[in-house]
Amino acid sequence: MSLAVRPSTPADAAAIAALFAESDMDAAPEHLRWKYWQPRADWLRPRSVVMVRGNELVAHAGVIPGSCAWGQRRVTTLQMIDWVARTRSGAGVMLVKHIAGMAEALVGIGGGAQTHSILPHLGFRPAGTVTGYARPLFPLRVLRGGAPWKRLSRLARAAWKRSATVAPGAEWQVRRLAGDQLGQIASVLPRPPRDMAVTERSVGLFQYMLSCPIVAMQLYALERAGQLRGYFLLAAVRGQVRIADCWIDSQEPEDWRALILAAVEQAKHDPQAAEVVIWASDPLLAGVLQACGFYARFQSPIRVRPTAADTMPEGILRVQMLDCDDAFLNGGRYEYWG
Predict the structure, then answer these.
(1) Is there a single domain that holds both residue 169 and residue 318?
(2) What pLDDT was estimated at residue 160?
């Protein structure tokens, strides 16, 4: 019997959960519902596809929708997540081809060794790297969770790397945004500088992310002298706070420094966080993070699969954890990068 690929529906939830359970993946019904079928204003197309053989579901892939802007160009993008199959007979190629028809480009950020080896054969090309940065908040908290020898090594590293407490200047103010206030940040959403492509954001995206049942997320506005300048999104998991996304309408390092320090100050209010972490793929943010006491912990490749040769930019592509499932990926264990 031949294989076929189609969008998933909530009626597939039990079969998808069973497939995930075979690979020890998150199969919580409320998580699947949020990732694949909960309506979101910024993307009305399917966010999950399945491969079937007759009535048997044999493979699945989810997507995180987005868009990329540079210069006067804008393209829709998809990042594949939750890719699993019972069959190896061309399942990956069929899923990628089907999903590629849903947007103007596919983006692949990070992933394991197997993903790194497969993506080039599926038409993905290099598009830079993203670096994960960490900054200790409360070193003694790293003693929670993990093997004893790992706890001690983390403690020593965190105590050595911890920076002096520095807050943004008094002219900067931070306030948390409730759901009915999200429209206020529309004027400071990312816009591409001359030398960089950015992944776009929308009010609808943040409305969706704040409803995440997997991890708690909070969105903050940053103001200077009463004028809205930027925002940052925090996601809390066991052991750390993730700066899942951030932006300020400036190319001045001092303004970005104020944004990052404001996010760090908010992260300190989380009673279980030992560290605060963030991604950077552009030199401006990377330099600011190092100046703010963050240190690099790992690098991951960024790859793209455009539908045409000129679909994606050749220069720097700015991505954040919000562009893939790293913003909310959580195994329920203590999460430490340091």
Answers:
(1) yes
(2) 47
Whether 332 is in a domain gets the answer no
Q: What's the CA dihedral at 31, 36, 38, 42 to 10 degrees?
A: 130
Give yes or no: residues 34 and 78 share one domain: yes
**pLDDT score recorded for residue 61:** 96
> Alpha-carbon distance 69 to 54, whole Å?
41
For 93-97, what is the mean pLDDT? 88
Torsion angle of alpha carbons 300, 129, 102, 113, nearest 10°? -30
Assess whether 37 and 163 both reside in one domain.
Answer: no
Cα-Cα-Cα-Cα dihedral sign, residues 207, 208, 211, 217:
negative
Which of 59, 80, 79 has the alpha carbon at shortest distance from 12?
Answer: 59
**For the whole model, what pTM was predicted?**
0.91
Distance of CA 26 to the CA centre of its chain: 17
Q: CA-CA distance, 252 to 335, in Å (whole number)?
A: 32
Q: What is the mean pLDDT of the chain?
A: 89
Same domain, 112 and 163: no
Q: Which of 128, 147, 165 is the last residue of a domain?
A: 128
Q: Give pLDDT tens digits for 267-313.
A: 999 999 999 999 999 999 999 999 999 999 999 999 999 887 778 88
Instruction: Provide CB contacts within 8 A for 15, sequence distance 6+.
Output: 50, 57
Nearest Cα neighbor of 299 from 117, 123, 106, 128 is 128
- Could you tell me what percent of the chain has a pLDDT over 70? 90
Q: Are residues 203 and 109 in the same domain?
A: no
Domain that holds residue 189: 131-327
Q: Reply yes or no on whether the pLDDT at 103 is more than 90.
A: yes
338 falls within a domain: no
